[in-house]
Amino acid sequence: MRIACLGWGSLIWDPRSLPVVSDWSHDGPSLPVEFTRQSSDGRITLVITPSAKAVKVLSAVLEMPSIETACAALAEREGIPGKFVDRSVGYWIAESRSHHPEADIVARWAEQAGYEGAVWTALKPKFDNAYVAPPCERVVSYLDSLAGEARDRAENYVRRTPAVIRTEYRMAIEKALAWTPAPDA
Q1: In this structure, are residues 154 and 46 in contact, taking their beta carbons and an 8 Å threshold?
Q2: 82-134, pLDDT tens digit by residue?
Q3: What is the maximum alpha-carbon separation in the chain?
Q4: Model confidence over 1-39: pLDDT tens digits?
Q5: What does residue 71 show for φ and ψ, rounded to 5 degrees?
Q6: Cα–Cα distance between 46 and 125 in angstroms, integer?
Q7: What is the dihedral of CA 91, 19, 65, 56, to 10 degrees?
Q8: Rounded distance, CA 78 to CA 10, Å?
């Protein structure tokens, strides 16, 4: 089954065991992603954020036998426990789609692009253990407060994010911290 995997962050440069069988293309749908999720290792990562401006995301091909195996593979790569796959991994196939708000946008794009299915990470914004999108100023202040390895990980994530993912928060981070895209981003 020819399934699109959508990406905008570390999935692009670090797919790990995810069976991506093509290069990442800059032809994905436009989705509202932003730097609004505080990860356990201190990074602020990109996630779908309903209040964010939509940006064109990337896509790659997964050759998988079914949408279920594609969802499971993406969940494994993202470290999403089995009991949370339904709410944290989005999917579309002609007969069915996940309940995520962006599923209709992905469906239209995937059908036009000739895919039989699509999967994407659908984690929610999270900051200070609350499932809310933090204000941009709070994200910049938080990143600026990091030190040592935590700061290095956070900076690496922002700098390695594909340069085409131009979000409001990214531009503020670049201006305040000079964390501009890496040459290969």
Answers
A1: no
A2: 999 999 999 999 999 999 999 999 999 999 999 999 999 999 999 999 999 99
A3: 48
A4: 999 999 999 999 999 999 999 999 999 999 999 999 999
A5: -60, -45
A6: 8
A7: 30
A8: 10
